[in-house]
Amino acid sequence: MPPLRVYMQRGEITFDLMQNEIEDGGFWIKVNEFKLEHLDLEVRKNLKTNKSIRRGFVNIFQIATECLKARKVPTAENLNWCCNNRREWPPDTKNYLRRAGTQMGFRAVLRYMFDAAKEEDEKADRIIYMSGLAASLRRLAWVVEQQGRKNVDGRPSVTCTWRGRQLAVLRSYDQYLTTVSVGSI
To answer: How far, in Å, CA of 62 to CA of 121, rounded?
Structure first.
């Protein structure tokens, strides 16, 4: 599970990005289509023609982030409380919630926000894993070099395979290890 700050960052970034082109409903819908997938079809149709509802949808990302920063669980009740205490004018968020329904309106935003944060966290884990794998391969090449294993050109090298597929060929040039080629897992 990603740390709380990842959820907050995802909410802030999404709020900022979704402000772009909010004036043009048709274009805004196309650009943000994947963020709207959890919304009811009728609400999505209204987003195309009603700028107030678009702004309200976008505001929920900021409200959810404020709720998380206040160390409150972003339940519909807590988000509604945060929404009512904003004294927003014009009441774009309330218009959106009136059209989408309080539960579904909040749920659509939170599902996207949490799914995106989880995906981002998984990508970071893969990057950390792959960088750890690269470090392990370099250490392995160093061990091979120390054992005096030579390649056809007379330089120490190691070929790393996994399930019969070549992952990397590492060669040592002077004191540096160089990845000559890297395959995919």
So the answer is: 20
Q: Which residues pair with 179 in a beta bridge?
A: 170
Question: What number of other Cβ atoms are within 10 A of residue 35's Cβ?
Answer: 21
User: Cα-Cα-Cα-Cα dihedral of 75, 6, 33, 42, to 10°?
Assistant: 0
And the tokens for 84? Answer: 């009512």
In angstroms, rounded to a whole number, what is the distance separating the alpha carbons of residues 174 and 126? Answer: 31
Q: Judge whether 117 and 148 are in contact, CB under 8 Å.
A: no
Between 101 and 126, residue with greater pLDDT: 101
Q: Is the pLDDT of residue 172 over 70?
A: no
Amino acid of residue 4: L
Distance CA 83, CA 61 (A): 11
Query: Using one digit for the tens of pLDDT, what is the confidence trace for 65-115?
Result: 988 888 888 888 899 888 888 888 889 999 999 999 888 889 998 888 888
The residue assigned the tokens 């949808």 is: 57
